[in-house]
Write a structure and sequence with these properties.
The protein is mainly beta. The chain contains one helix and five strands, in the order H-E-E-E-E-E.
């Protein structure tokens, strides 16, 4: 495991991804309308994974995408 505090990580931070529980409201060819606390569209190209966990859909997206 690399050391977490380095100049390289400060200059080139890596993207962080998280699993987020959602409710799917509508789907088109290019995007999905989801509800977390607010309704918003997520492009399908930004979704890196989807799973069903305890009767809840979760998507794997960048942490900054959902705020």
């Amino acid at each position: 495991m690399p050391w977490p505090f380095s100049f390289y990580r400060l200059l080139f931070p890596t993207d962080r991804y998280v699993w987020v529980p959602i409710r799917i409201l509508h789907e088109t060819d290019k995007a999905i309308l989801v509800y977390t606390a607010v309704n918003f569209w997520i492009p399908k190209s930004q979704i890196h994974g989807i799973r069903l966990r305890r009767n809840t859909f979760e998507i794997y997206v960048k942490e900054s995408l959902l705020g």
